Amino acid sequence: QVQLVESGGGSVQAGGSLRLSCAASGLTVQSYAMAWFRQAPGKEREFVAAMYFRGGTTNYADSVKGRFTISIDSAKNTVYLQMNNLKPEDTALYYCAARLYTFSHSAGDYNYWGQGTRVTVSS
How far apart (Å, rounded) are the C-alpha atoms in residues 119 and 9? Predict the structure, then answer.
């Protein structure tokens, strides 16, 4: 049984930092494209960042490039999203996702999803 469990969300002032974690079970994160998506109230789910370990590639949305960093701890089978210089527009529910093949920007291409962790950034 595959499970992705996000944690690390919370409330922070603009300019602050948070690190989100995605603990995976039932799959090995090194063998999947792992991604973070987010969804703000009333908006569609949008791509944030992804890593395909076997391909040695990472990819970021333009809105977070230079501020967010995705990484994998293979020993812990966990994916992280380090978020620096947070902005109010980063406020959203953040989801971890996994795909069998390489990364994609499309949420529909991902096979597994976590429940999400909420991030709130105040100005």
Answer: 5
Confirm if 21 and 94 have CB atoms less than 8 A apart.
no
E strand map for the chain: 3-7, 10-13, 18-25, 33-39, 46-52, 57-60, 68-73, 78-83, 92-99, 112-113, 117-122
Q: What is the mean pLDDT of residues 75-83?
A: 97
Residue 90: CB atoms within 10 Å: 22
CA distance 54 to 29: 10
- For residue 91, which of 60, 62, 48 has the smallest C-alpha distance? 48
| Band of pLDDT at residue 29, cut at 50, 70 and 90 | very high
Are 96 and 113 a contacting pair, CB within 8 Å? yes
Q: Which of 67, 116, 73 lies closest to 95, judged by CA?
A: 116
**Residue 54 pLDDT class (50, 70, 90 cuts):** confident
Q: How far apart are CA 17 and CA 96, in angstroms?
A: 18
